[in-house]
Amino acid sequence: MTKIQNSLYKFSRNFAQYLGLFFSAFAFATAFFVTSYAENMETQKALISVNNPFLLLPCCLLFGGILFLCCKLIFKNAPRSKRILLILVPLWIMLTGMVMLLFNRTAPSGDAWSVYDCAARMANGDYSVIHPDDSYLSYYPQQIGLMAFLELIIRILKPFSLPFEYYHYAKLIYAALTCIIIFYQYKTVDLLWQNDKVDCLYLLLAGCNFPLILYSSFIYSEIPSFAALTPGLYYLLCLLSQKQKRTLPCAAVSLAALAVSVMLRKNSLVIIIAVVIVVLLEWCCQKRQILLIYAILCIVLSLSILPAVQKVYEHRAGSSLRTGVPAMNYFAMGMQEASRGYGWYNGFNFLTYQSTGMNTEASVAISRKAISERLAYFRQNPAYAAKFYLGKYLTQWADGTYASRQATLATFGGRKAVFEELYNGKYSTPYIAYCKLYQLTVFAGIFLLFLRMHRSGNRPGLYFYLPMIGAFGGFLFHMIWEANSRYIFLYWLLIFPYASKGLFDLYEFTVPFLNRFFSKNSKAETEMPSSADTHI
């Protein structure tokens, strides 16, 4: 049995490394040759354009050159630079959060507003939001965890009698949560490589992540759920790598954080599946019973936390909620065309559930029929099917902005002109171009890391690949689920720490070569005789 377990572990580890290599190569290649973006903020249609490699490549080299020049400066005293960056980057995030609050003036809209409105009403004692028929939550009960989080924020702020809507002040909390994301990803980078220079490079990249900065003002589930996920994964990696002696506290904090992440955003279950698989395989290899207990508790907590929160609210309100829009409706919608892109939201999931009088069985039957019809059409038209799923992939993974403009488009009025130009004017194109260069830099770093590991034969433990396995799970999930580049943003952030090591390895390779090149040129210039010497 031990031989079988060891063989399974080695196979899984090798498979994960090849997965990381090929997935990062594919992501980089497609993002290099194709860009997805939204030009019109009214239709928000996801456009796809083919890049000019002869123009893009010099821009990438220039972007990388500027990054490496900054690295050359901060690497002179990496420990001191790291301490400075650990102060400056969070200050920068909080400062930009203030700027977004005062001048961008983003307001929740759509689902974000619906959840916030439910939270505000609950905080004011209006329990009618918990209702089996006439309630947003009866359509989307998975949002109840986020509602609980926002209600808590509102209840904390209420005694201060603040003059504006509470979501304005919540933006500062979201900015602080963004700092938590950066801090724990920095800790993850430090845990994996224990290199001050790699830590500095990560912090430098994190401070330039403009989509993340824009999302810090998006009052929805992305930022708080990922702010819980990052410490959860960090302490799990401490547990799996055995670099932390206090195993029980690490396991407890990790479990609690991962459960909260699922509470705030149910799609975090995709990453939880990766966590459970990796932990069980590590248990087979390490024979540590705490890992088996961790995996069992992770499953129980992740699957029970949202139902538990819902039961608490139903008890408070003396009412109940329905099971909500069935998952089958989302699968059916993910196979259909929409005005914004292949497989994007077109209302099918909601309208089907509503048209059946919120009858789950009837709604599922309609969705299954729609899926069967769509599959038959794909079989009859394979070229169209390939075009559909390629377009669905590109509109999600080739968008360097990750729909950060669309997500933060709504305003309560008075948005300053410079930000208005970012959404609908002359600054939108430079923003899209910057995000594309930034995205390519990150993907290049990830690919270079896995390529170097493959060529060197380096085989770290399976736990090292956990973020990549989770991101690949997200890729598969959203190829069959509803599409949106906003959903992909968190999976991209998940593999972000890999980029810092890959780029550092590239820096270590190129900078000495360039130094030798420039030193030879300067030496040749000093040895070259002057015109006066030649004349003599």
List the helices and strands and how they pair.
Elements: H1 2-33, E1 34-38, E2 46-50, H2 53-74, H3 78-104, H4 111-123, H5 136-139, H6 144-157, H7 166-193, H8 196-207, H9 210-215, H10 222-241, H11 247-264, H12 269-286, H13 289-317, H14 327-333, H15 348-355, H16 360-380, H17 382-397, H18 404-407, H19 417-424, H20 428-456, H21 466-480, H22 485-494, H23 496-527, H24 531-535
Antiparallel strand pairs: 1-2
Helix pairs in contact: 1-12, 1-20, 2-20, 3-7, 3-8, 4-6, 6-7, 7-8, 7-10, 7-23, 8-23, 10-11, 11-13, 12-13, 12-21, 14-15, 14-16, 15-16, 16-17, 20-23, 21-22
Name some characteristics of this structure.
mainly alpha; 536 residues; 74% helix; 2 domains; 24 helices; 2 strands; two-stranded antiparallel sheet; disordered C terminus
Shape by Cα distribution: globular
In this structure, how is the largest beta sheet organized? 2 strands, antiparallel
The percentage helix is over 70%
Strand proportion: under 5%
N/C terminus separation: 87 Å
Unreliable spans are 528-536
User: Order of strands across the widest beta sheet?
Assistant: 1-2
The averaged pLDDT comes out at 92
* H/E element order: HEEHHHHHHHHHHHHHHHHHHHHHHH
Total number of strands: 2
Tally the helices.
24
Question: Rg from C-alpha positions?
Answer: 25 Å
* Alpha-beta classification: mainly alpha
Count of structural domains: 2
